[in-house]
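Task 17 of the worksheet. Students: predict the tertiary structure of the chain below and write it out as structure tokens. Keep your answer in the requested format; marks are given for formatting as well as content.
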Amino acid sequence: MWIYKKALQHPVNIRECNPKLAQDICSQFGGPDGELGASLRYLSQRYTMPYKEVSGLMTDIGTEELAHMEIICTIIYQLTKNLTPEEVVASGFDKYYIDHTTGIYPAAANGMPFTAAYLQSKGDPITDLYEDMAAEQKARTTYDNILRICKDYPDVTEVIKFLREREVVHFQRFGEARQSRWNG
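Model answer:
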């Protein structure tokens, strides 16, 4: 189906711990508009998509979302690597830490664990493509929110900007698929 290259799609080299920021960014792993949900959504929807080229697009974007999940998890790991108990408590990361230490766990920034309720798959091509476009816009908004709160961390913002741009591209590609299939 595809070849896995053991390298991140965009490099992540964070030099400074920030567990609070890690907790916020965790939403793009396991939150309602995160990469895990996007990947599962597109990879599930592709089976009922009656158009081979659109099914292929869903496969392409779904697997790219898995690559984005790897990037987000790497950010979280690097932001929490080598934390002291004092840093955990001072940052407000203690509630996450109690349950997961510094393990990467799919949850929203508010602590809500990932749920399949975040996924939408109707089996109707138009409905699913509109859902996918909306999902990409919601993910872009979440990245915008992250960028607003992490301005002072260029090691993080550069990676987040890359991921945000990919959301825009995915939105455009789903829109093109919708237009070319039903309006062309």
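Marker's comment: The chain has one domain: 19-115+122-182. The mean pLDDT is 94.
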